[in-house]
Amino acid sequence: MGAAGRRARARRHAGRRGAGGAVDGRCGRRAELARGEVVSQLPDPVIIPRSDHPISRQHIDADALKVLYRLRQFDHIAYLVGGSVRDLLLGRTPKDFDIGTSAHPYQVKRLFRNCWIIGRRFRLAHVKFGAKVIEVATFRRQIPAGTEEEPVPLPPVTEPSSAAAEDADLLIHHDNTFGTPAEDAFRRDFTLNALFYDIETHSIIDYVGGLQDIRAGLIRCIGVPEGRFQEDPVRMLRAVALAARLDFRIDQPILAAIERYHGELARSAPARLMEEIYKVLRAGSAERAFHMLVDTGLLAAIAPEVPGRISPTFWQSLAAIDNYRRAFKRNPETLSNAILLGSLLIPLGLLEQHHGRAKELGARFGILPLARRDVEFLRQILMLQRHLRDPNASARHKRAIMHRSAFPAALMWLELHGNAPELVESWRVLQAEFARDVPEGELPPGEAPRRRRRRRRRRRRMPGL
What we know:
With 465 residues, the chain is α+β, with helices and mostly antiparallel strands. The protein has helices at residues 3-15, 30-34, 62-73, 83-89, 105-111, 181-186, 210-216, 225-231, 234-246, 252-261, 270-282, 286-296, 298-302, 312-325, 337-345, 372-388, 395-403, 407-417, 421-437; strands at residues 46-48, 78-81, 98-101, 115-118, 124-129, 132-138, 140-143, 174-178, 195-198, 203-206, 218-219, 249-250, 351-353, 361-363. The model is unreliable at 15-40, 149-154, 158-174, 354-359 and 443-451 (pLDDT under 50).
């Protein structure tokens, strides 16, 4: 098939309704959508052929390719979607390879024995390959509450140079309706996250100008930023995190909306916000991100007490995390929640230690909850620091320290924040020697599973005996 034929086929697939309807996307008017006018047709996508973009199948995870090809084999539309397309265009290694498809979740499950359906409000298919998960989501559309089949006007894409548009009611009342690829693209948050990669034609499908924004280094909303942030305030945090991680600039309408609505973050689930903070800390751009969180007022909305406590030590702590993270292509498991939590709280003076040995820790970060298991593990890490620094520790005592489950994390903390590289190296040498001496699979003393004592059943005495 020639290049022209592949582009035509991509357009036909892009406009086809995922749930089996008859909506054709070839006659849409992008200009009317950009002005926010109601149109009856979906916009034409921009099709970027293989010759005009750098993505190759060699860059895509082999298991994600298996899922894409199997869905296509059974005549379902299937695209690589979202952040993976963005990262591949930027020459980065994607953390996940997510797939959008016209197949419904249980149709996906019938195609893959290794598939699990998750989610309550919206069903997702997780296709598992060992510890790896390929997430497969059916294309969705956004409709207002109280309606089931009436099409809703697609939100406009604000022009980079335009001022913030007028308020619009874009609250997500009902986001569990299957739709087309075009409808799915327009319900996403930012233009650079709304690109699709077609494995059959090797082309990129762009409904919202995402490729242009990636080339311009711009974070831009799909729709009116004020409405998008009111329907999901966490998007404000994600806009800053994306800009920091990619070193992009944020579109002016987004900044204006954040300035106006940053207080809306308090409406979000605290546990969800804390997870976003952990993602920021793990991204390798935490120092830049927190500078932006301070400047936009988002940090004060989450933790009002923090901006007044920030000192150079705080920025040094974040820089240490960033420098460590950049040495890896993917997030290392050694950057646990406990280490990130301590790196965030201790320089701010938000971690209280009692009795001088951190036997009890009181930790808080504004409105955000801290998991007890993370705080407890951090306590163990901090308790081991004085043992790691003890110059008079005997060989036996050092071996006992290395038996502790928190030892690897404690040594990681010493490497990040201890300013003692020679001491860390000496412990690494001891750790290697210790690993050679201990037979593989042998548990440290005191940690071997105890054998349960069998209780003897008491014999019932016969009456009269």
